[in-house]
Write a structure and sequence with these properties.
The chain is α+β, with helices and mostly antiparallel strands. It is built from 8 helices and 6 strands; from the N terminus they run H-E-E-H-H-H-E-H-E-E-H-E-H-H. Strands 3-6-5-4 form a 4-stranded mixed sheet. A two-stranded antiparallel ribbon has the order 1-2.
């Protein structure tokens, strides 16, 4: 069953940062704040996070509700790294006419869900978070979405800003991050080999 909800892009009113160095400095500091947020959301929405393999039968993802209580399991979680500078430059050149201010996924996180119901609930939770401003939602779970554009792959991507006292003091409240919400079935086919094929597919489309 496809996710079909009304998702509206929010206007961005911030002053654009056109220095890639400054964007990365902001992203480095903000990464811990967005990580705290996805943990908070995952705990109340049955969210999972990817973990490093520990034997052939080990799961690829674990519920945060379990990992937060288990130091060994929590240490195996594979938190996303910042987008590479090379890929950010490539994206700015190919897609944004050299405007690095439009690269809004340098700092990113992923939450994995077992069902569309849980994924939909997480959207409600995120939207109701008073410390979050949703800048844009890309709903690739919609039944009307042409998945041939992403080689059959589907997810929901949110561009968000974290707006609280700490980020405002640091001048980070306007920095836009990416949060990916993905079903477990799609996540499990995102192997390293599959990612290489997807990058080739994306490059052929000059994206």
């Amino acid at each position: 069953r496809m996710l079909s909800v009304s998702l509206t892009a929010f206007p961005v009113t911030s002053v654009c940062v056109r220095s890639l160095d400054l964007l990365y400095n902001q992203a480095i500091v903000l990464s811990s704040y967005i990580r705290d947020k996805v943990q908070e959301w995952a705990e109340v929405s049955q969210g999972h996070f990817p973990v490093a393999a520990c034997g052939e039968e080990s799961p690829m993802v674990v519920p945060w509700s379990e990992a937060k209580e288990d130091d060994a399991l929590r240490s195996r979680i594979k938190w996303p790294k910042l987008k590479s500078p090379a890929r950010s430059i490539e994206k700015a050149l190919r897609c944004y006419k050299n405007d690095v201010s439009r690269v809004v996924d340098i700092c990113r996180q992923t939450i994995v869900y077992s069902s569309v119901t849980d994924l939909t609930e997480s959207l409600t939770i995120i939207a109701s978070d008073s410390e979050v401003k949703i800048r844009r939602i890309v709903n690739r779970m919609d039944e009307n979405y042409d998945s041939s554009r992403t080689s059959g792959y589907r997810d929901v991507k949110l561009n968000v800003s974290i707006c609280n006292e700490a980020t405002e003091m640091l001048g980070l409240e306007q920095h836009v991050c990416e949060v990916q919400l993905i079903l477990k079935e799609f996540f499990e086919i995102k192997t390293a080999e599959a990612h290489v094929r997807y990058v080739y597919f994306r490059n052929m489309r000059s994206e």
